[in-house]
Design goal:
Elements lengths: L1 H31 L1 E11 L14 E4 L2 E10 L7 E8 L10 H10 L4 E9 L2 E9 L2 H6 L14 H11 L6 E8 L14 H13 L2 E6 L10 H18 L3 E2 L11 H11 L2 E8 L6 E4 L1 E3 L5 E4 L3 E4 L3
Parallel strand pairs: 4-5, 4-7, 7-8, 8-9
Antiparallel strand pairs: 1-10, 1-13, 2-3, 2-12, 3-10, 5-6, 11-14
């Protein structure tokens, strides 16, 4: 009988200690915030060269609440690790292959700290042709003619979500460069935000992956349907804007003359990125939180995702 009483007492004491510890952690999180990291790109306005920005110049806010900046590290040197997946729509017009020399030049110009992967959008998945590699020749060799069949790609945003889901978590910056018309054949209403696009944005934000996009026409009728190409480009702009990336070639239905200027700009963005750590307000549970990153420096913009994943305290 006494043994049973002692056992109950020990269990009760352990439970009490656990509760006290959890309350202490929660109180500390309430006071200090939850550390959250995100990638931020520094841009000079009006085409000016991106300047150096210090931690004291960075402002982070959730609504009207200012969050404390804990760290602001240039993505260079020991912090330059980078992973880029070039995700090509297999329903693209095959003329896009004329741009592949520009893509190979971009791959070859990346620093040794960068790993490059090549994948194709097929039937709603990201079919990896070359996994992330430091071998520039292997990555360039994986580029091939798209199949040019409209129905081969179920949905470009399914493919983005699939790639994000299968991408192992890492401390390196992670970037997706989509080459697509952005057209979603599964959703045709222009009145509401595409739910599949929303899911891809949420997945990328949760993983801290930035998505950029270069528009290229689809094969066949979809490639010159103004209504579809207009909304496709708007969707590409949406996913890029909300994940902290950049969308290129907005407003026309024909193919770009050259990818070179877009790839040059994309490379410059990668060279002007910082790793931001700030103290987010703790919540009762983990979830995506709207956040705004800005600076009051003149002629400078900070580009980042508009939401970030905040773990539970």
């Amino acid at each position: 009988m006494k043994k049973g009483i002692v056992l109950l007492y020990l269990i009760s004491s352990l439970a009490h200690c656990s509760l006290v510890a959890r309350n202490a952690v929660a109180q500390q999180a309430e006071e200090n915030g939850v550390p959250v990291q995100m990638v931020v790109t520094v841009e000079g306005r009006h085409g000016a060269e991106a300047p150096e920005v210090g931690a004291k110049d960075v402002l982070v806010s959730e609504g009207r609440t200012r969050d404390k900046v804990l760290d602001w590290i240039p993505a260079r040197g020991d912090h330059a690790a980078l992973q880029v997946f070039i995700l090509i729509d297999d329903s693209s017009n095959q003329n896009v292959a004329l741009q592949f020399d520009d893509v190979r030049n971009f791959i070859n110009a990346q620093p040794s700290s960068a790993l490059i992967g090549i994948a194709y959008m097929q039937n709603g998945i990201a079919r990896v042709a070359q996994d992330l590699t430091g071998d520039r020749a292997l990555a360039g060799k994986a580029l091939r003619l798209p199949l040019g069949i409209r129905t081969i790609n179920g949905n470009p945003y399914f493919a983005v979500s699939d790639l994000v889901k299968r991408w192992p978590k890492t401390n390196a910056r992670r970037q997706i460069l989509m080459v697509s018309s952005g057209i979603d054949p599964n959703y045709t209403s222009a009145d509401l935000l595409d739910p599949y696009l929303s899911s891809a944005i949420d997945a990328a934000q949760r993983a801290g992956i930035q998505v950029s996009a270069i528009y290229t026409p689809s094969f066949g009728h979809y490639g010159h349907s103004y209504w579809r190409t207009y909304w496709g480009q708007m969707y590409l702009a949406e996913i890029a804007e909300r994940t902290g990336g950049e969308a290129y070639y907005i407003g026309m239905t024909g193919p770009p003359v050259s990818f070179a200027p877009y790839l040059k700009d994309f490379a410059e963005r990668l060279n002007n990125q910082y790793l931001l750590t700030f103290a987010a307000r703790p919540g009762k549970k983990a979830g995506l939180r709207s956040v705004k990153v800005r600076t009051e420096l003149p002629d400078v913009e900070l580009v980042a995702a508009d939401s970030v994943w905040v773990p539970a305290p």
